[in-house]
Design goal:
Elements (H helix, E strand, L loop, with lengths): L1 H16 L4 E3 L8 H13 L5 E3 L3 H9 L7 E3 L25
Parallel strand pairs: 1-2, 2-3
Length: 100
């Protein structure tokens, strides 16, 4: 629960101060609906598009199926823009244990 509180505080501060947000998700292995809800609030309330840095397949899958990926910028570790996972040739959604 500490992580959720920290995320909600960070979203509140970013919106309050109207600053661009970069979300480094390269080491994320699990993301639940509370995180997606907080990111949705950030997207709706901010005047800046959040940038996701190096999302692993599980995060890209969630961004794609929730369509949040259409509302954020996604970049690789070399700051190069990446295509949405659904646009990659031969991309197949994988099964992940995401529930909770």
């Amino acid at each position: 629960m500490v992580m959720k509180a920290e995320l909600l505080d960070a979203v509140h501060e970013a919106v309050l101060h109207d600053v661009p947000v970069e979300v480094d998700v390269r080491d994320v292995t699990f993301m639940d609906s509370s995180v997606l809800a907080a990111l949705s609030r950030l997207i709706q309330a901010s005047t800046h598009r959040p940038t996701f840095i190096s999302p692993p397949p599980v995060v890209r899958f969630l961004l794609d199926v929730t369509r949040i990926g259409e509302l954020v910028d996604i970049v690789g570790p070399d700051d190069g823009t990446l295509e949405p996972a659904s646009a990659e040739q031969g991309s197949q959604p994988r099964e992940h244990a995401l529930g909770d």
